[in-house]
Structures are given as structure tokens and as C-alpha cells.
Amino acid sequence: MLSKIIKPSKGGVKIATDILQTGGVVICPTDTVYGFLADVQNKKAVGRIYKIKKRPKSKPLSLFVNDLKMAKDLAEIDERQEKILRKRWPGKYTFILKRKKGKKLYGVDKNTLAIRIPKHAFLQKLLKKFNRPLVQTSVNISNEKPLNKISDIIKTFGGADILIIDGGDIKKGKASKIIDLTKNKNNVVRK
């Protein structure tokens, strides 16, 4: 089945939310690169991202959350870490934190979580409306460069029966910086 393509709009937020709530996958522009999104609590939806991307299941995905409170529900965050998060979020920084036990989350590491609050108006509205964490990863075939031209995204993934939010081309798109906060010393994993 062909993918549905829409523009980022108020109506688009509702359409994308409905798709995510029913276990669908969405491609959405972010403040860094285009990203695949799915409900982290829906095993089938998360599995579809791995399949579409041809990504090894051994490679965990990261999460988008809509605020610090949601991040604290999922991860152990001390005062030092919170100071850093408040300084960098929302923005182009993904932080690795110790995962709290008890929540059913799919596609993520069992001990740590890579979490980010993006600084992108449409995506922030979507996260607020969906009100649950979204698993996310760059739009590309695993180990290839992220696709930032909407024509390339449609050509590569247009037949995958997913919702594509066409926010136009992302110029100079670069994946977020990843910083591991699980130790006392901040460790930059990806610049």
C-alpha cells in the first residue's frame, strides 16, 4: 500500500496522532533530520521501523519526549543531570540516561535510554497531543546517510504504507549530538 503524504498543519497533528495511536509509523521533519516515529509501547509498530529501515534489532532506538516530566517518568535523573537537560532542551541534544524499571518499552536498551526533546514546532505539537514517548530514528536504510530531501524520502519509502509529513527539504540536516550522562563525567558519543 502507498504512503499518505500531508503537510505539517494543525489538521496534520490530528492525523499523525491517530496513525500513531493505531500502531502506524510516521515520517516527520525534526530540528535535525527527518525521523521515523512510532509508539514506544506498541511492539508491532516499533518492529515495523526496524523492518522498513532494515536495521538490526540489536541496535536500540532513541526516544522523543514532550517535556522533562515525561523524561523523569522513564529515566533516573539526578540534580546534576537535570541542570544539563534544562540547559540543552528543547534542542539538538540526545542524552543517555539510566532507565527506570517497570515500563513496557520496545526497541530501546534494557538498561539505558537515549532521550531528546526536539525543538520543532510541528513535532512539539504532535508530542503534546500524543502525550506518550515516541521511539524515533533517522529516515534512511540502516548504515546509509539520513535522507533530508523529501523527494528522496518519497522515492525510498513511499510504498511502505506510512504517513509522511512533507516539511520540505531539510538543508544541512545533521543528526543530534549524543551525550552519555550515566557516569559522573559527560561522555560525548556522537558529535
Topology diagram in text:
Layout: E1 4-6, H1 10-21, E2 26-28, E3 35-39, H2 43-53, E4 62-64, H3 68-74, E5 75-76, H4 79-88, E6 93-99, E7 112-116, H5 121-130, E8 134-138, H6 150-157, E9 163-165, E10 177-180, E11 187-190
Parallel strand pairs: 1-9, 2-9, 4-7, 6-10
Antiparallel strand pairs: 2-3, 3-8, 4-8, 5-6, 6-7, 10-11
Q: Can you walk through the features of this model?
A:
The chain is an alpha/beta fold and 191 residues long. The chain is built from 6 helices and 11 strands. It is globular, with a radius of gyration of 16 Å. The mean pLDDT is 95.
Instruction: Give the low-confidence spans.
Output: none
H/E series: EHEEHEHEHEEHEHEEE
As a whole number of angstroms, the C-alpha radius of gyration is 16 Å
The number of helical runs is 6
Query: Largest sheet, if any?
Result: 11 strands, mixed
Distance between the termini: 37 Å
